[in-house]
Design a protein that fits this description.
The chain is α/β, with parallel strands linked by helices. The chain has a single domain, classed as TIM Barrel (Alpha-Beta Barrel), CATH 3.20.20.300. About 40% of the residues lie in helices and about 15% in strands. An eight-stranded parallel β-sheet has the order 6-3-2-1-13-12-9-7. Helix 4 runs parallel beside helix 5 and helix 8 packs across helix 9.
Amino acid sequence: MSLGPLMIDLKSTSIDADERAWLESPLVAGVILFKRNFADREQLERLVADIHAVREPPLLVAVDQEGGRVQRFREPFFRLPPMRALGRLYDRDPDAALDAARAFGWLMAAEMRAVGVDLSFAPVVDLDLRLADVIGDRAMHSSAEVTAKLARRFVAGAGEAGMAATAKHFPTHAGVKADSHTEIAVDQREYEDLLDDLVPYRRLIAAGLAAVMVAHVGFPRLDPRPASLSPWWIKSQLRGELGFNGAAISDDMSMAGAAIGGTPAQRVRQALDAGCDLVLLCNAPHDVPAVLDALRGYVDPAAQVRLMRLRGRGRLDWDTLRASDEWRRASAMLGPLCERPDLELHG
């Protein structure tokens, strides 16, 4: 059985009967975990193992473990700093910031791999334009080139720990005040005004980026549909202009920014037709049966190959990892960058 085009979530800290039936469907690729799915490390490790054991090949298990206010798993996991801390350090000491970015990617990924999680949807490469509150300190820097340099080191560190990276939110969420979780988000800029926003993607794709998450942001001067539902953005720009051959992943289809696409089933189908390989559907268990029914018979062999490349590689057990010299060095490097996180996002 191959990986399908849909990633769903779970209601609690274990898999219930309905969820298990959904996960057994060939249309499902995996599970994204949230704070509500985490009680302690041992429980989390059991849950991830249970998800992987549902079928062969194992389902993907993902999370948003970005750092700062978007860190789903807290104690005993290392409290990661917000991404902006890397940019602030870069302004003082570029070499130290690049080393810290690699350590950031490695430590985050190594801890996730130690409990079996395949991938974290990171890094955020939206520029720090001080406009989108939903991005805020999740952005590394206002400079496209600095963001690209830091992101490349982050991606390299994660790769060393056995995790593929996902750059987000393509093409950008930085230029809108509205939060696409709760509102229709529209960026009125022309294409020429977006070129800086695309620089991190160009640099990361040239270095072999594995995955991109596509935003529910509309750019009406270019396409009336949000990027996540737009063949122009995904097929023409991401695949064509930027030469991306990794996995294209939509943001959560239950978000308000995707509402223009109609029902959840219609949104999911439009995202797939637009060129997404994987579509997220979160916080909407009542919609999962209808979406699975609407996707009956859907197969995309090329997408299946791209998704298989996202599976985590290798892992150290938790105690061995935390006792390692590399974990100690990375945590010592990142500790001073930690700030008090803002309110956590739940979408």
